[in-house]
């Protein structure tokens, strides 16, 4: 196993060629759709994202129920409800921080399996809650599990997926998170809040059972010197009839170059800090588009604007559009390419946020705004708008604009930022850097979610939307200048691309 599986050294790559050199991989497609095992392993892993999406919106039906609770120990004030909703993001940030160590210590698969422990404990605390502290601790533990899986699952999926379907498989974490959220909304119509927590245990248990039969990442196994196990894992994932020698050689060469942990001196090398900086900035800019506060305060926003349909119906429609958009992204990511979808996504979100800001500023206000949904009786408009009964078609604007915003986000800056994070991060720093990306993402989400009401109170609802629109313009510029196209490239080619230190990777 110490000798190369092929007689000649594999080629290095100075840039992204138009076509990869001929190899057995081209003659025998590795991980082709006829081999279902790689899809089974992906499904087992992304069950963690289902739990994440479920936990993220758990408070949506629960907060109203607890605000009306007859038990004084569980009855939530507005301030307590705000903490119950936002403490999840602090737990997720802690989970991302832990992933910086666990991703490389336990491995990608075992880290995902470990996340089931805090997830199950958190749901158990909320299901049996007798006071606010149990609710908050349970919420933070489920957030910790979500942050850990958010950092580990994209890395695991990208490392087991062949290049030809890595884009589609890379979109499945976002897709499963949306399924988890929609499942929570559906169950919320049928089950009381304690049983919603009990139901949340199911996906975590299913994930840990299925993953126990799946292989670890071949790249992680090679980095730990377990070559024979890595070769078996790759053969299992690609199928009995696939010729894995060329792919295994490429992975082995890349791992041998980066077998040591990254030092501070190496971190200053452009081939290291450029992809890490791109991944960090993408996670930061993704949150600054406003996705988290818009989802958290979706129904209150509709209650505070003149809308034609009931706000709860509007929220359900937006959720369905989100699911459809993620499905479209999953099928087009390996056809259209990452950068094209990022451009379309940012442009769509810019138009939607600008439209929402203009509507709040100059459009009609509702005749009797609902003041019981968590936005603290705030008059949103910065100008005096006419009070109208929402019956004209112009009052469809908030729903349509929000639908386009969610559609734009779900087709590009939602799933692709997670996929690119796992694709461009160098193997030597992939575990640590992915955890850092999740940490930055959720700290930004917490800051935006907690400050949203303060900004609305001081300046009006239109100001956050105008700010989010400006960020989307920055995203367009950032995509054009800094994001490389990775469609159809192996992870080894992508790392070689950054090692060239050429400015061409910025185009």
Quick rundown:
It is found in: Lysosome membrane. The chain has helices at 24-27, 37-56, 59-67, 78-105, 108-114, 116-127, 132-160, 166-170, 172-188, 193-211, 218-223, 227-238, 245-257, 264-267, 270-288, 291-296, 298-303, 311-336, 338-362, 397-413, 415-424, 430-459, 462-482, 491-499; strands spanning 365-366, 387-388.
Q: Which structural traits does this protein have?
A:
Growth Hormone, Chain: A; 2 domains; two-stranded parallel sheet; 24 helices; globular; disordered N terminus; disordered C terminus; lysosome; transmembrane transporter activity
Strand content: under 5%
Cα gyration radius (Å)? 23 Å
State the CATH superfamily name of the largest domain.
MFS general substrate transporter like domains
* Termini Cα gap: 39 Å
Number of strands: 2
For this structure, what is the CATH class of the largest domain? Answer: Mainly Alpha
Low-confidence stretches: 1-34, 368-374, 376-390, 503-507
**Biggest sheet strand line-up:** 1-2
Helical content class: 55-70%
User: Major β-sheet, in short?
Assistant: 2 strands, parallel
- The coarse silhouette is globular
Q: What's the number of structural domains? A: 2
Secondary-structure element order, N to C: HHHHHHHHHHHHHHHHHHHEEHHHHH
Q: Say what the CATH topology of the largest domain is.
A: Growth Hormone, Chain: A
The average pLDDT score comes to: 77
Protein structure class:
mainly alpha
| Number of contiguous helices | 24
CATH architecture of the largest domain: Up-down Bundle
Family: Belongs to the major facilitator superfamily. Sugar transporter (TC 2.A.1.1) family. Glucose transporter subfamily.
Function: Probable sugar transporter that acts as a regulator of glycolysis in macrophages. Does not transport glucose.
GO molecular function: transmembrane transporter activity
InterPro entries: MFS_dom (IPR020846), MFS_sugar_transport-like (IPR005828), MFS_trans_sf (IPR036259), MFS_Trehalose_Transporter (IPR050549), Sugar/inositol_transpt (IPR003663), Sugar_transporter_CS (IPR005829)
